[in-house]
Write a structure and sequence with these properties.
eight-stranded mixed beta sheet; alpha+beta; two-stranded antiparallel ribbon; globular; single chain; 10 strands; 265 residues; Structural Genomics Hypothetical 15.5 Kd Protein In mrcA-pckA Intergenic Region, Chain A
């Protein structure tokens, strides 16, 4: 039984009311479930649950919209993760620096339609009350704006195949599609979040969004391009490197960034 579908539990949903947030555990690498162990659980189809439980874990796929070749991460997070916490998880997954504003956009309860080709007023909007430096934000308020720090993942995306968007940097507009692939039982004593797999290097900050990132990689790959040296100098100044491998994906580095966000399952 390799999936929730095979178990006859599609779509799995959490009933209301929302889950309460569990307490943070001490950072302890001995309690950390390795990506290899997590994958064994996933591939075996073990732990699939359709019960409301604080021990439930969401398997999410986070992909950057419009990126070619595809750029994505697969991660396990507790079902009671708040969107504020998920923001920090996605930042770590992609290697973002959290220098810009962000927001979440999700379908309204009972609406399973796509967020694309829809009016902004048709979906829920979740935002932080502070900017990346911690200063209070004076957003242009509207009656649908909600606090990401009180919104719980299991409520916003209650079923397998649920999806929503995470937007980072309102200028470059990096849109991440977040999809619930599976709802599983937590491994006793394990700590989450943990990244299982991914494709390609995380993008570069302030490069102009998806199209600017593609252009940057093309310029860096062409030593004869008139902007080649300027781009290398910029990378050296901002990232401390003069070369950028867009195809590289370092699972260990991603999980190292996730360490400070972990809590026991």
């Amino acid at each position: 039984m390799g999936s929730a579908e095979a178990a006859g539990l599609t779509p799995l949903c959490f009933p209301a009311p929302s889950l309460t947030n569990s307490k943070r555990g001490d950072e302890n690498d001995s309690a950390f479930i390795s990506p290899e162990a997590a994958l064994r659980v996933e591939k075996a189809g073990a732990g699939v649950t359709n019960q409301k439980s604080e021990a439930a874990v969401y398997q999410l796929k986070v992909s950057i919209d419009g990126a070619q070749p595809p750029l994505w991460r697969r991660v396990l997070v507790p079902a009671d993760t708040t969107l504020g916490e998920l923001h920090r998880v996605i930042q770590a997954l992609m290697g973002w620096h959290d220098n810009h504003l962000h927001e979440f956009e999700a379908p309204r309860p009972g609406d399973t339609g796509s967020l694309t080709r829809r009016s902004r007023w048709d979906y829920r909007l979740f935002r932080s009350g502070t900017d990346p430096s911690g200063e209070p934000l004076d957003w242009i308020m509207d009656d649908r704006q909600e606090d990401e720090d009180t919104a719980v993942l299991a409520d916003v995306a209650p079923c397998e195949k649920s999806h929503f968007a995470y937007i980072y940097d309102m200028g470059d507009h990096w849109e991440h599609k977040v999809t619930v692939e599976k709802i599983l039982s937590a491994v006793p004593g394990a700590a989450y979040p943990v990244c299982l797999k991914g494709k390609r290097n995380g993008p570069v900050e302030d490069c102009g969004g998806v199209w600017g990132y593609e252009e940057m990689q093309e310029i860096l790959a062409d030593p004869a391009h008139p902007e080649h040296q300027d781009r290398k100098d910029w990378l050296e100044e901002v990232y401390g490197v003069s070369e950028w491998d867009g195809a590289a994906f370092d699972l260990a580095a991603v999980n190292d960034r996730l360490k400070k966000l972990r809590r026991s399952g």
